[in-house]
Amino acid sequence: MSRFETPSDTATGNLVDLLLGGLPAEAVLTDPDVTAAYANDMASFCPAGSPAVVVLPRTVEQVQHVMRTATALRVPVVPQGARTGLSGAANASDGCIVLSLTKMDRILEINPVDRIAVAEPGVINAALSRAVGEHGLYYPPDPSSWEMCTIGGNIGTASGGLCCVKYGVTAEYVLGLDVVLADGRLMSTGRRTAKGVAGYDLTRLFVGSEGSLGIVVGAVLGLRPKPPEQLVLAAEFASAAAACDAVCRIMEGGHVPSLLELMDRTTVKAVNAMAQMGLPESTEALLLAAFDTTAPAADLAAVGALCEAAGATQVVPADDVAESELLLQARRLSLTALEAVKGVTMIDDVCVPRSRLAEMLEGVDRIAEKYRLTIGVVAHAGDGNTHPTVCFDPADPDESRRARESFDEIMALGLELGGTITGEHGVGVLKKEWLAREIGPVGMEMQRAVKQAFDPLNILNPGKLF
Amino acid sequence: MSRFETPSDTATGNLVDLLLGGLPAEAVLTDPDVTAAYANDMASFCPAGSPAVVVLPRTVEQVQHVMRTATALRVPVVPQGARTGLSGAANASDGCIVLSLTKMDRILEINPVDRIAVAEPGVINAALSRAVGEHGLYYPPDPSSWEMCTIGGNIGTASGGLCCVKYGVTAEYVLGLDVVLADGRLMSTGRRTAKGVAGYDLTRLFVGSEGSLGIVVGAVLGLRPKPPEQLVLAAEFASAAAACDAVCRIMEGGHVPSLLELMDRTTVKAVNAMAQMGLPESTEALLLAAFDTTAPAADLAAVGALCEAAGATQVVPADDVAESELLLQARRLSLTALEAVKGVTMIDDVCVPRSRLAEMLEGVDRIAEKYRLTIGVVAHAGDGNTHPTVCFDPADPDESRRARESFDEIMALGLELGGTITGEHGVGVLKKEWLAREIGPVGMEMQRAVKQAFDPLNILNPGKLF
C-alpha cells in the first residue's frame, strides 16, 4: 500500500483488478466523474451513493465473472438498464459495482410461427418493437420511456404502459429467462413453448424483482400478431366523477379498449398552458379511449354513447389514424406539461380497483387542497392505475416537505380503497417503507425468505424493496 | 395406551384428537374404507399411500387449525380438490392428513366493473364459469374436467384447456391469493386491481406449486367479457405433417383462433370405432379451428384457405353454433375413445414449440412402432401442447412396462425438440424424475431453496415435484 492510499482505495483497487481479470479495460469504468453519471434513475426523493466501479459486460460469461467477483469480495451489485425507472431501484449504493446491461443489446431470434423473440437485457424496448413489427408481430408492453428503456429494465420493474388495459403488463410476455445468480452460476427458467408448468414459476418471480434475486442476461419473450392501428375517441366531462363513471360503464359493458386514459382538470390546464392545444378550460376531465379492432368505428360509437350517458359534454371520435394521433398528443404531453408547472414533479403510481377510481380522484383533490399543492392526475383509467403527479419547487423546503407528505397520503388512500402502492413503477427505494403496509408482516417475512434463498449474502441490489 | 393399540394407532389417535379440537366431528374422517377413497387422483403409474385421516374444513380458521396441528406433530399434509389431476400430485402418502378443500365452495363475489371474482378453492370450475356468465363475464380456463375439477385444484396444477391458444392458462387469471402457510399463519398475496407490482410475485409462485408451498384458501380471479359463441371449422389431412404445416401457417398468418386442436389417425379411428361418427378412415389427421370473433365466418374462410394450401383433403366450416358443437364432438370423445381401445390409457402432456409439432408427431409414431403400442395423439395444436395417449392392458405386465418406457421416451423427445415435460398437467409424482432433466442442477437447487423457504419441515405434500 502506498502511504497516499486509504484502505478503501486499496479495496477498490483490488476489486477493479479482479474485475479486469474477466472484463476488457473499456468495460470497467472507475473515473468518479464518469461513474457518478450512473448513480441515479429518474425517481425523485431517492438517495443514491457513489459506485466504486461501473462495469459494462457484453457477454453472459462476463456477467458471471462480475458476480463471482462480487461474491468473493462481498461487494454489493446494482444492476442497471437505461435508468429510466421511477422508484430508485437502479440507484447506486456507496462502494457498489454498478452492473450496466446496456451493452448486451442483441436481439437473438424472432420467430413468427412460435411468436417469440429472444433478446439480451440491454435491447431498447422500441428497438424490439420495431424489429418484431417487421415480421407482423407485436410486443405490447409500452412504458412511456419505451424509446429509451431496456427490456431488462422492463423485466426488473415489471413495467406497464398505455396498452395494458387490453394486453397486460410485461410479466405476461416473459416466457423464460437466463439469470446469473449471486454466486455467478447461470440458471435458465421457464420455456420457449406457449405453455409449460414444470416446477415453480421462477420466471415470474424474477419479473419485478428489481435485480434483487439475480441478473437477467437473456429473455424469451412472447409476441402477438400486430393488431390494426387503433382509432381514438376523446370525451370531455364536467366532473372527474362523470369521467370515472364512463370508465365503469365501458368496462362493465364488456368493451375491450386498447387504451383508456384519463387526464384531470389540472393536467388539461397544464397541457393547454404549454402547448395551446385548445382544450376547453371548462374541462374537468378528459377521457381517451381507443380500439384496435377490425371495426373500430363501431366500437367508438358504442363507447361514445356510454360516455354521453355518463354526462360527457363533448365526444370526438377520430376518423382516421392521423386524427387519432392528434387526440393522443394531449396525453403524451401530460407529464412534460406537469413538470413545467413548478420545475419538478414526483410521480405516484397507485392502482385501485377501477370501481373505486372516482373516490381516488376525489381523494387526491382533497389531498392537494390540504397540502396547498398542484397535483395533476393522469391515469391508465381502464386499469384503475393512477399517476397523481405532485408539482413542486425543490428549492422551497416547505413545499418539498409537503410534496413528500402528500405523496405518502396518496398511497395510504390507495390502500384504503383496496388498491396497491404501485401498479407498474415498482417499490425500489421510494416505496420500500410502504411495502410492509401493503403486504403485512407474514407477507414480508416470506418475501425476505425468498430473497434469502436467492441472495444469502445480500449483495444483489441491497436496500431496495425491503 | 391400551394393550390392543399399536404405537402408530396412538399417534393417529393423538392426531385425530388434536384435529377435533378445531374441527367438527363430521369434518374428520377416519374410517379406513372411507379414507381409502381419497388416496388417488386420476394419474396412472403413481403409487399412493394410506391417509391417517381426511379432513374437510369449511373455513380458513379450520384450515389454519389443521396446519398448526400438522406442524406440531410433523405430519405430512396432502391438499386435494376434486382429484381429477393427471400427475399424482393429489395422491395420499402413508399416515398423512388429506386436506380436502371441496367443502370450501363459496363464490364470494363477482364484480363486473372490476372484472374479478373472489372464490373459495372448492368451487367447481363449471360452477364459477356459469355464475360469472350470468353477469356477461367469462372465466376462460377450461380443463377437460371442468364439470368436476375445482378452482383450487386448477390453481395448484396451473391447469390449461382448449381455450389457452387464445386466452392463456390458469396462471393468467389468478390475481391474488389467500394462503395458509405450513405453520398455520395466513398470508395474502397479490391484489384485487388490474395491475400491481408491490414486491415479489408470490401469487404466481403458488400457481402450479401443487400444494407444496401452502394451502390456497381463497383466490381473486380475473375475468374477461364473455366473447361471442365460437364457430368451428374441421379440416382433414392426408398426413400429420400437413396438418402441422397448416397450424404453422395459421399462427404465422397472425390469426388468433379460440381453439386449434389436432387429432391424429389413431385417435380418429378410435372415435370412429366408438361413436360411428363417419370420419373418413383415410384421415391421417383432423384439425379443428374455431373463432369467437364478431365475424367468425371470415376468419374461418381465411383459415380454411390456409388449410387447403397446406394440403387439406377436406375443409368443413360450420354455419352455426349447433354445427360447431357437432364438429367438436369428435374432439370431446377422443380420450374416452382411446381408453376404450385397451381399457387403460396413460396421458402424456408434452409441449413443444409449435414449429416443432410435426417432428413431435412423427417421433411419437416412431416410438409407438418401436414399443408395439397404440398411442393416439390429441393436441392443443395451436400451443404445441400434445397429449400422446398410450393405450395398454394393465393385466399384461410386458405391455405395461412398454407403456411406461414409451411414456418416458416421449418426454425425452419433447425436451430434445426444445419443449417441456408438462404443458398443463404438472409434475406431481408421475414426472418428478424428469423435472431435473428439464430444469438442470442449478434450477433444481433454487426450486428446492424456495420449497425450503416456505416449508422448512417438509410437511406440505412431501414427495411431490422433487
Can you walk through the features of this model?
The structure is a homodimer. Chain A folds into three domains: about 5-100, Uridine Diphospho-n-acetylenolpyruvylglucosamine Reductase, domain 2 (2-Layer Sandwich); about 105-225, Uridine Diphospho-n-acetylenolpyruvylglucosamine Reductase, domain 3, CATH 3.30.465.10; about 230-415, Vanillyl-alcohol Oxidase, Chain A, domain 3. Chain A is globular, with a radius of gyration of 23 Å. The two termini of chain A are about 35 Å apart. In chain A, a hairpin with a 5-residue loop joins strand 8 and strand 9. Chain A has helices at about 5-20, 30-35, 60-75, 125-135, 150-155, 165, 200-205, 240-250, 265-275, 295-310, 320-340, 355-370, 395-415, 430-455, and strands at about 30, 55, 75-80, 95-100, 105-110, 115-120, 135-140, 175-180, 185-190, 215-220, 225, 230-235, 260-265, 285-290, 310-315, 345, 350, 375-380, 385-390. Chain A is an alpha+beta fold.
Q: How many distinct helices of chain A?
A: 14
CATH superfamily of the largest domain in chain A: FAD-linked oxidases, C-terminal domain
CATH-defined fold name of the largest domain in chain A: Vanillyl-alcohol Oxidase, Chain A, domain 3
- Provide the β-strand percentage band of chain A: 15-25%
Beginning-to-end CA distance, first to last residue of chain A: 37 Å
Pairing-aware structural class of the strands and helices of chain A?
alpha+beta
Largest sheet of chain A: 8 strands, antiparallel
* Whole-number mean pLDDT of chain A: 95
